[in-house]
Amino acid sequence: MKSTSSALTPRKIAEYCKGRFTPIFTEGEVRLLYGCLLDLLERAEYPPYRGSGLDLQSLSAMLDIDFERLRAYRAHLQPIFDAVAREVSNVALRPARTASRSMRSKVTVPSANHADVPTTSTEKVRKKPGVRPRAIVEFPEPLDTTWNDPATFGEALQLHARRHGETIYHLYNAVVRPEDGVNRSTLISWGRGKKVPRAAISLEILGRIEGRYRLPTGYFLSLSGTPDRAPGDFDLDDISPSERRRLAWHLPEDFNRRPSQEKAEILNWVRTVILSGSTDYRRYQAAAIRQRYAVRFSCASGPVRKTSPARTPDESGIVIAPKRLNDEMAELLRFKTSTFAAFGMQRNGVWGTETASQKVEHFGLWFGAFVAPPESEVQGLGVDPKLLTFAMMIFPQVWDWYLHWRERRRGFYTKWEIDLLSIAAAICREETGWLRQSPRMGSSLRPIEGLVTEADINAVQSDWPAACDRMYKHARRRIKEIDRVARIHRDPFEPILPVLEAPSPVGEYRKITEEILRRMPDERHNARAAAEAVRAFLMLRIGLHTGLRQKNLRELMLCRPGTLPTSERKLEDLKRGELRWSSRDQGWEILIPSVAFKNANSSFFGSKPFRLILPDLGRLYELIEAWIERHRAGLIGEAADPGTFFVKTAKMTSTNAAYCQNTFYEAWRTAIQRYGIYNPWTKRGAIEGLLPHGPHNVRDVLATHILKRTGSYEQASYAIQDTPDMVAQHYGRFLPQDKSEIAARILNQVWEAA
């Protein structure tokens, strides 16, 4: 039996905190920890545990102490919290022992004459001192039927508890069940505004409180600003942690209580519609991604993807380019990207940074098809990587093998094959072809079984120009043949058809930004989530106002108010635009030099920069300023500031917060998944039938909207910085059904005027 002297006391807790906590925590943190320990002891409550260890995340949220600091000093925290847990267990047993001792002390010792008379029958056990607990009423009557809604969740919770004559302590006893595993301190933290509910059980308890006080469903949730869901709240044990995190946002609060069949239905819907997008192309792409094959060049610019150490090169399907092949790739990049062509060489056209990166990836896939083993899912040719060389592209039979291989994989030809053949023709073209001007590369050729013989090599080496001419003619012939049968595998409009078919496409798409505002997290409790929501809002709104391509939007520089804007000349050198405050127009201005655009030479620009004053509508200016002042720096953290307006959420291992093409696309796509797609299971999302998509689709929305309203290809081209011919080619499908309506609207104006 534990002696009284060994019981945990406030004095012992104070001594422990002084000896173990003072050297490692600040004075304020020590006070918080001491108060928490004392509070748990006085209320006989167990500390928060996760398994056998202390739940540091809950403790961090409860005390508002940095989680990383708590984790670093777990060895100092665990013993004292374990001691509190042991004392709470002992307290649960102590009253029974105390009562028995009390009874024994008050029993009257019977005399010899009354040995048969029971002495305890008339004894009264002393009642527990203090005020008797208040009875719990299922639906208490309010003391006041009118009230003004507070601005915060904590204030609202306290208000409605007072309206019904209850304290948070009593409310806890009324709505929290033993099996919930929620401490009283959790509700106290809610009322004090130190925590907001996030876990599934917490949201369920909110629902009980709303029912108890006869409040509308979702009343507290609308004030709590809960940003996302904890992945651990759901029964998803057979799902990987990464997928669990993606799924958590899109699952209903009562997911765990639903039947197994319904759970499977929900998971399947979220996976196919929200996460992957249920189009034929997305399904093909998802399957193709799992079959990894490529040759990776080290000369490529930008971040290099790391191959998982758990997978060998053969398992991953990724082969590192041999030195010779990598050097040839570097030579081609210099030829197509340098300011001047090398002495004695001619070229036609220059690759920009993104085009060069794209070509490197495409060449990697081209060579990867030859390297992949025949017995693998890719069903490649199994060529030794050491035999690979760009000189292989001079053989028509090599290209025919690749084209047949592409047809086997996809089932038909697309514009992809036409683009690749165009490259083959370009590098073999007379006068300007890179391969045509590099006959020395013929010495790198080696026989490839079943594809290139020694005789083939000797023939091209003896007459390199003639071999290039043959390949050029072959490529042009194949382009015409494939163009005749090529199919469109990806309909770029399919994900946003509900928007494009609406009477007002821009008004329909704007609903997504309004949904973001409705579900904006509380910055005080969820700073990062609030910053990411603001970023998503600004991405979509600025995209809707400008119609910029992803590159131009992503690379926008930031000029803070009060600082000198970047000169137009420097922006031309950088080939990117800038968001700055215009004192003349008293508004936020976007200025982008024409050279920064993909179609810089089109008639739209006329060598003049793109300039637009953003309208101060729908909280746009308010959130731009909040983004610049607070949110942007919070997401950058310790990473290097890229100077761009949009920055990604820098992780602990990040060194740069700059977006690349893929990460910006994923950020936009995530915003659509969370706020755009209507989810029938959670009742969240703005547009029913919408599918995941990227930033380029906003240009489709703008062009289609203006085309529907005006019928003018020219005016539609103004919205997306393009030419009327290009608009007519891509968006004409949305005009025919509206031509009569446009004509009628114009004619009706005459009658209305009369």
TrEMBL record:
Coiled-coil region list: none
Entry keyword annotation includes Oxidoreductase: no
Keyword tRNA processing carried by entry: no
Chain segments annotated as transmembrane: none
Region Disordered, residue ranges: 102-129
BP terms from Gene Ontology: DNA integration; DNA recombination
GO molecular function, one term: DNA binding
Keywords: DNA recombination
Listed name of the protein: Uncharacterized protein
